[in-house]
Design a protein that fits this description.
The protein is of the alpha+beta class and 174 residues long. It folds into two domains: 5-34 and 106-171, Beta Barrel (OB fold (Dihydrolipoamide Acetyltransferase, E2P)); 39-103. Helices cover 48% and strands 26% of the residues. The chain has helices at 13-18, 23-30, 36-70, 75-103, 139-144, and strands at 5-8, 107-113, 115-119, 125-130, 133-137, 150-156, 161-171. The mean pLDDT is 82.
């Protein structure tokens, strides 16, 4: 069995714009690292669950203080105190998990021939199937790709979030 090597093709500006990446970021991804801008985007992706847990904790604390002032020994107040501690634990757990994911973040690469799929069922979306993995894409990205293209996809493993995609050409050494 011969080992396959591949060469990178020069991406055009439309390609870079669609994937919101620069040539320098692609070079950093080739080395298995995440650029500062990509790391910032991934942190922004983690913000909604973190903020949701913090808001749940604050809302529970507010409702608990209102109920505690009205009826200290009521079962609803005791349930709210349990929910308050649970929501605090959830907020801390989500923040710690996000920090651990971002601290150990590495870029993985999948190479192969692309197969595109546009789902129209209730789980709809635009998907790229490559090297046994599925990646969800946005419409401008999906429109640039074609079935049968040979690609290298750089992604963050924890959520299979696509960081960059570049066209490649396979070459078998003699």
């Amino acid at each position: 069995m011969t080992e396959q090597h591949y060469y990178y093709l020069q991406p055009n500006p439309v390609w870079l714009t669609a994937f919101n990446v620069s040539e320098d970021e692609i070079k950093i991804n080739r080395a298995g690292q995440v650029s500062r801008m990509q790391r910032r985007r991934l942190w922004i992706d983690r913000l909604p669950p973190i903020l949701g847990c913090i808001l749940l904790w604050l809302a529970t604390g507010f409702v608990y203080t209102v109920f505690r002032n009205q009826a200290t020994a009521a079962p609803s107040t005791q349930c709210l105190s349990g929910l308050l501690f649970l929501s605090l634990f959830m907020a801390i757990a989500v923040m710690v998990r996000a920090w651990l994911i971002m601290a150990n973040l590495k870029v993985s690469v999948a190479t192969g021939v692309a197969k595109l799929e546009e789902r129209t069922d209730r789980y709809g979306g635009l998907f790229l199937h490559l090297d046994g993995r599925n990646f969800e894409l946005k419409r401008p990205q999906f429109n640039l790709l074609h079935d049968g293209m040979t690609l290298a996809v750089y992604y963050a493993q924890h959520r299979k979030r696509v960081l960059a995609i570049e066209p490649i050409v396979f070459h078998e050494p003699e």
